[in-house]
Write a structure and sequence with these properties.
Elements (H helix, E strand, L loop, with lengths): L32 H26 L2 H11 L3 H11 L7 H29 L4 H27 L7 H29 L9 H14 L3 H16 L6 H25 L6 H40 L8 H5 L1 H41 L7 H15 L21
Helix pairs in contact: 1-4, 2-6, 2-7, 3-6, 4-5, 4-6, 5-6, 5-8, 5-9, 6-7, 6-8, 8-9, 9-10, 10-12, 12-13
């Protein structure tokens, strides 16, 4: 990536004007989106049919309503946690919704079909099905979304944090539908389940919705980490990473299910306290570390891009530091209204994407289409720049990118 050829000449920021061309506010289309959308739509329709049949066949209407109402409660907070991690380069809402939908209907339907085939063909008992078959089939079904996303929307995942976010939302969707089934069954009651009623359903909700809402997102996060690592590397090691990520997801899932199935569930609490909770804290700590690392990486990459003339160096803190990014958007809205704020958001987003791409160039792992993508990003930054006004520093230091904690 170089500053030759007239790309990225620095411009002085003119006063904000309302005459922003509408086309500037439209994000560029991604290659492969049509194919991915078609595949996702067909899979969602097929999965929805299967899950609708399963849900209506397994629960009475009242039990289904109770299951949905209780299952939806932990969804919002868990999704919010993943979106909090995804603040540097927010992923498209339609892809995040697709990840959740894949987990909720496609992965659950595929896993149920595979597990039913196993019961018929291999005759696995309940313990083997829960401890072995379920982890193998469910993690494969969930992880497939992340792999398809990389295959057809390869620019959607820039690193491990993106992988964690997409894999986590698939896991949230899967847990949502699975909880509906478990909660509905608990409400209806039966042999080996309990007396039924609202009390039984709430008891299951406490275990699954309060103490372990992170279980499925945690398992699939191992696949997300592996995919995020693989897309930034070259050589056979990245394929090994995918295998390791899947195996870790299966092992964690098997340990969790096995603790509830083996020895009458006597090891469940111990597994929860001394395995699942520490694993959850490790993954959370790793995700926070990865986000902080992204900040340092973006500062370095965009600083180098600024030295090459692609943007002003003084802009970098307003593009990288989260408090400064918010301040820049507030300032843009105060100066030029909602349109100016939208332009600022688009400029920040495009600069961050350039930073991720330029970092891969600096590390020698740039993708084959690097030159075309980088040129397109720089040209878009140039087109947006005349309509962007950053806050100006004051003598007291207010308004400096580093002034807000």
């Amino acid at each position: 990536m170089s500053g030759e050829g007239g790309l990225g000449q620095r411009h002085a920021a003119p006063p904000m004007t309302p005459d922003v061309p509408p086309a500037l506010l439209q994000s560029p289309r991604r290659h492969g989106s049509v194919v991915f959308t078609v595949v996702l739509t067909i899979a969602m329709l097929a999965g929805s049919v299967v899950m609708a049949m399963v849900l209506f066949a397994s629960s009475a209407p009242g039990a289904l309503v109770i299951g949905v109402l209780l299952a939806v409660l932990p969804v919002g907070p868990v999704i919010a946690a993943f979106l909090w991690l995804d603040r540097y380069e927010p992923e498209p809402t339609r892809l995040l919704a697709g990840a959740f939908g894949w987990g909720a209907v496609v992965a659950t339907a595929a896993a149920l079909v595979l597990q039913s085939l196993d019961a018929v063909v291999l005759g696995s008992d309940a313990t083997a099905s829960a401890s072995i078959v379920a982890p193998v089939t469910e993690e494969a079904a969930k992880g497939l979304f992340v792999l398809l996303l990389v295959w057809w929307r390869r620019h959607a995942i820039d690193g491990v944090l993106d992988g964690i976010v997409y894999a986590g939302l698939v896991g949230v969707g899967f847990a949502f539908t699975e909880n509906i089934l478990y909660l509905g069954a608990a409400y209806m009651g039966g042999e080996g389940i309990g007396p039924g009623g609202l009390g039984s359903a709430i008891g299951v909700f406490v275990v699954r919705g309060i103490f372990s809402p992170f279980a499925h997102p945690l398992f699939t996060a191992f696949i997300g980490v592996a995919v995020g690592y693989a897309v930034t590397r070259r050589g056979p090691g990245r394929w090994l990473a995918l295998v390791v990520g899947y195996l870790l997801a299966v092992l964690a899932h098997a340990a969790w299910n096995g603790s509830a199935s083996l020895a009458g569930g006597s090891y469940f609490v111990l597994t929860y306290l001394f395995a699942m909770v520490p694993a959850f804290l490790v993954v959370v700590g790793f995700a926070v570390w990865a986000r902080n690392r992204e900040a340092s990486m973006l500062t370095r990459a965009l600083g180098d891009a600024a030295d090459r003339g692609f943007l002003g160096r003084a802009e970098v803190p307003w593009l990288v530091r989260l408090p400064a990014r918010r301040e820049a958007r507030r300032h843009a809205r105060a100066v030029g209204g909602p349109v100016a704020e939208q332009v600022m958001k688009e400029y920040q987003q495009q600069a961050v994407e350039l930073g991720f791409l330029h970092d891969r160039y600096l590390r020698g792992t740039a993708p084959a289409d690097f030159a075309a993508r980088a040129t397109g990003m720089v040209q878009r930054l140039q087109a947006l720049r005349p309509y962007v006004v950053f806050p100006q520093p004051t003598l007291s230091g207010a308004g400096r990118p580093g002034a807000e904690r």
